[in-house]
Write a structure and sequence with these properties.
- By secondary structure, the chain is of the alpha+beta class.
- Helix content is 45%, strand content 21%.
- The strands form two sheets. It has a six-stranded antiparallel beta sheet with strand order 1-3-4-11-6-9. The protein has a five-stranded antiparallel beta sheet with strand order 2-5-10-7-8.
- α3 crosses α5 and α5 packs across α6.
Length: 318
């Protein structure tokens, strides 16, 4: 991740003011007050995974307020997924309060007012997730904000561990790797938020979105299996084939269509990957579950407008 700002070489009288101007621009507009201006220190780093923005910041103790006035200047097309790395933060939004300890995760909506108190040496990673990507999976998010997602379950531990590793491993990731990583992060976030809320408390549309997330995860995990079929995917997601296709129909797809689309996307990424130029087109197709090259070529051209071999030639030229 790239260092955007550090107080290390700024005179102590100016440190907090400089920090505030950077944080208001790179995180969200807000007002804040440091516990001690003379000893205040902070650092902000940024990066991205696909459409997900990453902001990592460390700071001294301070209080933050995001009010109606600040909402008018906020990017309301984003939601903040916060993973505490060090120290702690006490957050309040929509009459709910949460204290984040290292490993904990929560969701904050910049469309709504919030208050936060940061401890000394607080360190937090914020994922700035496009709202449409989250709402496509879980529906309206307001009831999910300011709830503590603690690493007590396998799903939550997996999410927490993955988020903790992002600042260490995102630099230098190619576009293909980012395209693969982005949906996995979103699906892990979806599952953890859904479990934390409790499926019985989710609206019907949100529950169906969780089923879609499970179906997508089941497909991704088995794409290389040439025997993969609708019943295997539905069973792995814990639903019937009929219900699975009914839920996926809301996104104008089905299990079979989803399998094919994801296999084609994997093949497209492999054909563009310089590290896989030594593999033949047929090796790539067979590796991702296709068993008939004529069928593969026809489907690939239908999806991307060119034959696989031509797509590879264009990728090489680019």
């Amino acid at each position: 991740m790239k260092t955007v700002f550090s107080t290390e070489h700024v005179h102590r009288r100016d440190r907090f003011d400089y920090w505030l101007s950077v944080a208001r621009k790179d995180v969200a507009d807000h007002a804040s007050t440091p516990k001690c201006r003379n000893t205040f220190r902070a650092q902000l780093r940024s990066g991205s995974v696909g459409a997900i923005g990453l902001v990592l910041f460390q700071n001294s103790a301070m209080a933050v307020s995001h009010t109606r006035r600040h909402i008018a200047h906020a990017n309301t097309d984003e939601l903040f997924v916060c993973r505490q790395l060090g120290g702690h933060i006490a957050l309040e939004q929509d009459s709910r309060q949460v204290v984040l300890e290292p490993g904990d995760i929560t969701l904050i909506d910049p469309r709504l007012q919030y208050e936060a108190r940061f401890s000394e040496d607080s360190e937090v990673l914020i994922l700035k997730v496009p709202r449409r990507l989250m709402e496509a999976r879980l529906g309206q998010m307001r009831e999910m904000t300011a709830r503590s997602v603690k690493p007590y379950t396998p799903e939550n531990r997996l999410l927490s561990a993955n988020l903790a590793m992002l600042p260490l491993h995102t630099d230098g990731l190619g576009s293909a790797a980012q395209e693969l990583l982005e949906p996995h992060l979103l699906d892990l976030i979806t599952l953890s938020l859904g479990r934390t809320m409790g499926e019985e408390r989710l609206r019907t549309s949100s529950a169906r979105s969780l089923v879609r997330a499970r179906l997508r995860a089941a497909v991704e995990a088995r794409l290389a299996d040439r025997t993969l079929d609708a019943s295997t995917v539905a069973h792995a997601a814990g639903v019937s084939v009929r219900y699975a296709n009914e839920v996926l129909a809301e996104e104008s797809t089905s299990i079979v269509q989803l399998i094919q689309a994801r296999r084609l996307a994997r093949c497209q990424q492999a054909l563009e990957d310089p590290l896989q130029m030594g593999r033949t087109v047929s090796e790539i197709a067979y590796g991702w579950g296709f068993s008939d090259m004529t069928h593969f070529g026809r489907r690939f051209r239908s999806a991307y407008g060119v034959l696989p071999s031509e797509h590879r030639r264009r990728a090489r030229a680019a």
